[in-house]
Design goal:
Layout lengths: L4 H33 L5 H31 L12 H29 L2 H27 L10 H28 L5 H34 L6 H4 L2 H14 L15 H9 L34 H5 L4 H5 L6 E2 L4 E2 L4 H4 L1
Antiparallel strand pairs: 1-2
Helix pairs in contact: 1-2, 1-8, 2-3, 2-8, 3-4, 3-5, 3-8, 4-5, 5-6, 6-8
Length: about 350
Amino acid sequence: MPLSPAALTYGPIFIGVVFNILLYGIMITQTFLYFTVYKKDRLWMKIFVATLFICDTVNCAFDITFLYIPLVNNFGNMSSLMYASWVFATDPVMTALIGSLTQIFFAWRVNVLTHSIPAVVFITVCALCQFCGGLGTSIAVGMIPEFVHFQKFEIIVIVWLAFSALADCAITFALVWHLRKHKTGFAATDDIVNRIIRLTVQTGLITALCAVIDLVLFMATPSGLHLVFNLPLSKLYTNSLMSSLNSRSGWRYGSGNGEETTDDTTRNDRAKHLTMRGSEGGRRVSTMTPNQVYIDVESHEMVDVIDTKGYPSDSAIGAMPSRPYSEKAGRLNAAGTSDSL
C-alpha cells in the first residue's frame, strides 16, 4: 500500500519539529543558566546570546506554524500537503543564520586561543558560504514549492550543508590541535584539557554529522526523510554554543595578551582564602577552588633576642665589677673572698 503524501512529507516534518521543540526547551534552560551564573560577561557576549535565543524562538514558532497550517487549517485538502508554504521557506535561512553566527563565534575563540589567521579566515569563509547557501535554499523553496521537486536545486543545498559541516570540522580540528599541543604534563591540568577536548569534539561532530546525514538523505531520496535531521539543526548549533559557554567554570584560560578574562574574574571572585596561624611556625593554610595551583611565599626574618632589647653602652660595660671565675668552686666569687680563704 503506497504511503500518503502526509506520511511521506509531513511525517518526517512532524518528527523534526518535535526534536526542534525538545532542543528549544534545553536552550531555554541553557540561556537561563548563562544569564544567572555569568553576570560579569562582556556586554557584547550577552547581546550575542540574547540574539541567538530570539532567533531560536522565531524559528521554533515558524516550524510549529508551517506544521499547523496544512494539518489543521487545511485538514482534508490533499493538495496542501504537496506544497511548501512561505513559512516553511524561512527555515533554511534561519538555520543558516544561526549556524553561521555560532561558527563565527567559535572562529573568534580560535583566534583568541591560537592566533592562527589562516584558520580563522577559513572558518569565517565557510560560515559565510553556508549562510549564502541557506539563503539561496529559501529562495529556491519559494520558487519551487513542490516537495517532490526539491532536488532540482540540490546544488545550492550542497553548498549550504557541505560548507556547514566543513566549518564545524575545521573548528573542532583547530581547537583540539591547539589544546593537545599545550598540555603541561601535570595530571590535574591535563585532565581539564582532556575534558575540554572531549566537549569540543562532541559538540563539533554532532552538528557536522547531522549536516552530513541531512545532505546524504536529501540527495538519496525525494521524500522528506532528510527533514528529520534538518529541522533540529539550528537548535543543535545553539545548544553546542551554550554548553561551551556554561562549562567554563573550572577552566582557566588566559586571553593570551595578559588581560584578565571573564572566566578568570568569576573564578577569582569565588576563591576564598582561609588563613590559619599556628602557634609554632606561623604556617598558612589556604583553601582554593579545585584544579588551580597557587604558591604562597612567606619571608621570615630571624632577629637575635638581644637585638630587641638593645646592646648596653661602652660606659656601662666598663663600670661593671670584675668577678673572677673559680673552676674549683664552679661559681663566680666576689673579689674579696680570696682574702678570707
